[in-house]
Specification:
The complex is a heterodimer of chains A (about 120) and B (about 650).
Chain A: E1 2-6, H1 10-22, E2 26-30, H2 33-42, E3 47-51, H3 59-68, E4 77-81, H4 86-94, E5 99-102, H5 107-120
Parallel strand pairs in A: 1-2, 1-3, 3-4, 4-5
Helix pairs in contact in A: 2-3
Chain B: H1 7-20, E1 24-28, E2 34-37, H2 39-45, H3 58-67, H4 77-86, E3 92-97, E4 103-110, E5 116-122, H5 124-179, H6 182-212, E6 221-224, H7 225-242, E7 246-250, E8 257-260, H8 262-279, E9 284-293, E10 299-307, H9 314-318, H10 331-335, H11 341-351, E11 355-361, E12 365-373, H12 382-385, E13 401-405, H13 409-422, E14 425-429, H14 432-441, E15 446-450, H15 458-467, E16 476-480, E17 493-498, H16 503-513, E18 521-525, H17 529-541, E19 545-549, H18 552-561, E20 567-571, H19 579-586, E21 597-601, H20 607-615, E22 619-622, H21 628-651
Helix pairs in contact in B: 3-4, 5-6, 6-11, 7-8, 8-11, 14-15, 16-17, 18-19
Classes of the chains: A alpha/beta (about 120), B alpha/beta (about 650).
């Protein structure tokens, strides 16, 4: 199972990738929205975990682009934001995200959401 | 017994009355001659002796005041006089400032049989107090704004390192678990738990500050209640299991839907259930949903959250919904929690039009009840549910309100003439403060915003709008002045781009503005080295060369030693010489007259606001460059897109 993890904060990227790998996922990483869009096409991940405030292009725009491309639009995207404000979730879903979770990540909860999306895909 | 006063006595009484009054009083007869006055009048008006007789008229007196300079240095005294004579037949009042700073309120009323009476009141103190009060209010408002944005930034800054603390302690805890190192595991779990507690506090304080600043928004949509309950169950199940209790959910299978804010109602239920979980050991936590009608026959959905926990005394119940108080100050020590959850829950329930209630007895547990009105729409298909929100008639400009913000009356006139004819409803503001006041009272569909205005400029107004949830979605058309030399901003700027830079857009822009010659140089002026690098890479990929400058001074230095570049990419906020000053100075260089300059705008806009601007409809037009017809077309395009977006949101 291959996960594309998009996160510009180095510590967050390191933490989450190690925990995902420990749980048996293969992890590909992108540090900005542009890279995320590129890797979504070239690395064919099964699912994308997307931070929203990213450099170059932000997570909302990156999600829109992933969902606009027929080649990548089938990949489920889970938005990760720092704080669960109602408007954040709304904005993420409007951009095309399939689910939404908050940081710091509760790994069990996140993996539950990932499995739910992958199972239904 | 009533005694008739002699005419002398009557006169003396009148005289005394006038002289003891706290106002200056003067009476003029039908010929405008001064017939009666009191001492305060003489004192207030500082009139020389010779005016206090019947041989002078009101007109003489006005001319004297005018000559004294009280209407201003260059005032046309005859015109001022005419203005005053014109209104003498009616009651009127105005304020006058004496040259020494004393402020008087002047009131004139006509009397029967011709003539009039003038009353002068010293309102200097009152004016001073009003001014101080207004200043205090403005200070308080700006302090409040500063506080809100400080809290928002601060909580973000606090959360970032906290994420690392929680994440790495959990990572280590997993390691310790694998190794079977129980001592380390216990300690690491304490670090993680303390981190999560702190995080909860920060998040709730931010929520509360947003609520108090009136910035919390409600998003109404059709909510499938069973699905919402399932989501809540996933989150609270582990909390309840931790104390050896179990969750019982009673929900009729036909509970259906409700039009409400899904995130807020979920948050409320999670708050109540996690409280119940905390205070219940080896017991039962109940979540029950039902439908009922109130005394007025209005349908409600009722959520009961009951526990078999420690319960509360009536005194504790009284303090329950106040911020930072739990039933007992020792509660926090024993049970954790921030003490803000219930306060926030009550605010949310109120925002959703519902009510929250609690029944409790010590030792017997507590039951919290939330009731939310069901105003219909919940059962309908999503497409129909949106109908009642779609209030704007289709394709009619008359439904669209445009707020014109400009300090130049001529712009208002021109726009009123063109847009008014198209059927737009126009609102007018002469400055930024007035604009914001109008927007907050009744948000327009579109705002046209002048960049250069006294006090608050257009960019600041835009910045404030984008920071207020009620205003941030309003499309803005910036109007900039190109022909005014003193206003450095727009001098020759060819295009505007928002940061973060979109490489595709930048490449397209380069192709459009810079001739594709091998020796074409693009000058990048930005104080952020990362931004310069990103742009330089894009320029290189487009087959061009770039030069970099970290501020306006360096850029001007580079220009004086090199041939003119093909294009300048310019940041606005930089140290030493900023983008505005650079623009002003660079046009004095002959070699630079033809060179296109692209302004990278990010002034006062946060990351989120920038992306907002990039994805929405910020159009930058130039006031002198664009024929006014273009503006009309841009407005209707914007209005269309705006409505289209609103509808597609609703249909989701």
């Amino acid at each position: 199972m291959k996960v594309l993890l998009v996160e510009d904060n180095e510590m967050n990227r390191d933490m989450l990738s190690r925990r995902l790998m420990r749980n048996g996922y293969e992890v590909v990483m992108a540090v900005d929205g542009q890279q995320a869009v590129t890797l979504a096409g070239s690395a064919s991940p099964d699912i994308i975990l997307m931070d929203m405030s990213l450099p170059v292009i932000d997570g909302w725009e990156a999600t829109r682009r992933v969902k606009a491309d027929p080649a990548t639009k089938g990949i489920p995207v889970i938005a990760l934001t720092a704080h669960a404000m109602a408007e954040d979730e709304k904005k993420a879903r409007d951009a095309g995200c399939d689910d939404f979770d908050t940081k710091p990540v509760d790994i069990q909860r996140l993996m539950g959401k990932m499995q739910a999306l992958l199972g239904s895909a | 017994m009533k005694r008739t006063l002699s005419s002398e006595e009557e006169h003396a009484f009148l005289r005394a009355t006038l002289d003891y009054m706290q106002h200056g009083v003067a009476m003029y007869d039908a010929d405008h001659k001064l017939v009666t006055w009191n001492e305060r009048f003489v004192d207030y008006l500082q009139m020389p002796e010779e005016f206090l007789g019947t041989d002078r008229t009101f007109s003489d007196y006005i001319r004297y005041i005018g000559a004294r300079g009280e209407f201003g240095e260059d005032a046309d005294i005859e015109k001022e006089l005419e203005k005053r004579l014109k209104v003498l037949a009616t009651s009127h009042s105005f304020e006058r400032v004496r040259p020494d700073g004393m402020v008087m309120e002047v009131r004139r009323d006509p009397v029967p049989g011709g003539g009039f009476i003038a009353i002068y009141t010293d309102i200097t103190e009152r004016k001073k107090q009003e001014l101080a009060l207004r200043k205090a209010m403005e200070d308080a408002e700006s302090a409040n704004k500063v506080k809100s944005s400080f809290l928002a930034n601060m909580s973000h800054e606090l959360r970032t390192p906290l994420n690392a603390i929680i994440g790495y302690s959990e990572l280590l805890a997993e390691d310790a678990q694998d190794r079977g190192d129980k001592a380390a595991l216990g300690d690491l779990e304490k670090i993680s738990a303390a981190g999560k507690h702190l995080l909860g506090l920060i998040n709730e304080i931010l929520d509360l500050s947003k609520i108090e600043a009136g910035k919390m928004e409600v998003y109404l949509e059709r909510v499938d209640l069973r699905k919402a309950i399932d989501d809540v169950k996933t989150i609270v199940d582990p909390m309840i299991a931790k104390n050896g209790s179990r969750l019982v959910i009673e929900c009729p299978p036909d509970i259906g839907g409700l039009k409400t804010d899904i995130t807020k109602i979920k948050q409320c239920l999670i708050n109540l259930l996690s409280n119940a979980a905390k205070f219940t050991k080896q017991g039962t936590v109940l979540l029950r949903l039902s439908r009922e009608k109130d005394d007025h026959g209005v349908a409600h959905v009722r959520f009961d959250v009951g526990d078999s926990g420690i319960g509360m005394t009536p005194e504790q119940l009284g303090r329950l919904f106040q911020a930072f108080t739990q039933a007992d100050s020792s509660t926090t020590r024993n049970f954790g929690g921030t003490g803000l959850g219930l306060t926030i829950t009550r605010h949310f329930v109120t925002m959703l039009g519902g009510a929250i209630d609690v029944v409790s007895e010590p030792g017997k547990g507590s039951t919290f009840t939330i009731t939310l009105p069901d105003r219909g729409g919940g059962e309908a298909e999503a497409g129909h549910a949106a109908d009642d929100l779609r209030m704007q008639p289709e394709g009619v400009a008359s439904a669209i309100t445009v707020l014109i913000v400009d300090d130049d009356p001529a712009v208002h006139d021109v726009l009123s003439a063109t847009l008014g004819r198209e059927g737009y409803v126009l609102l007018h503001a002469r400055d930024g403060a007035e604009a914001l006041a109008i927007m907050r009272k009744s948000p327009p569909d579109i705002v046209t915003l002048d960049v250069q205005m006294p006090k608050i400029d257009g960019w600041s107004v835009l910045g404030i709008m984008k920071s207020e949830s009620a205003l941030e979605h309003i499309p803005v058309i910036m109007l900039t002045i190109v022909d005014d030399r003193n206003l450095g901003f727009s001098l020759g700027a060819s295009e505007f781009m928002t940061k973060p830079i979109d490489r595709n857009k930048l490449t397209a822009l380069l192709r459009k503005l810079a001739p594709a010659k091998a020796d074409a140089v693009i000058l990048i002026v930005d104080d952020d080295p990362d931004v310069r690098e990103v742009i330089a890479a894009t320029v290189k990929a487009a087959g061009m060369t770039s030069a970099q400058a970290a501020n306006g001074r360096e850029a001007l230095g580079w220009l004086s030693n090199h041939a003119a570049p093909a294009l300048v990419l310019l940041d606005l906020m930089m140290p030493e010489v900023d983008g505005f000053e650079f623009l002003e100075k660079v046009r004095e260089l002959d070699s630079m007259i033809e060179v296109p300059i692209v302004v990278l705008t990010a002034k006062d806009l946060t990351e989120r606001e920038r992306s907002f601007l990039a994805e929405r409809t910020l159009l930058v037009l130039s006031k002198s460059g664009q024929p006014i017809g273009t503006l009309g077309a841009a407005l209707s395009a914007l209005a269309h897109r705006h409505h289209g977006a609103a509808e597609s949101r609703l249909e989701k």
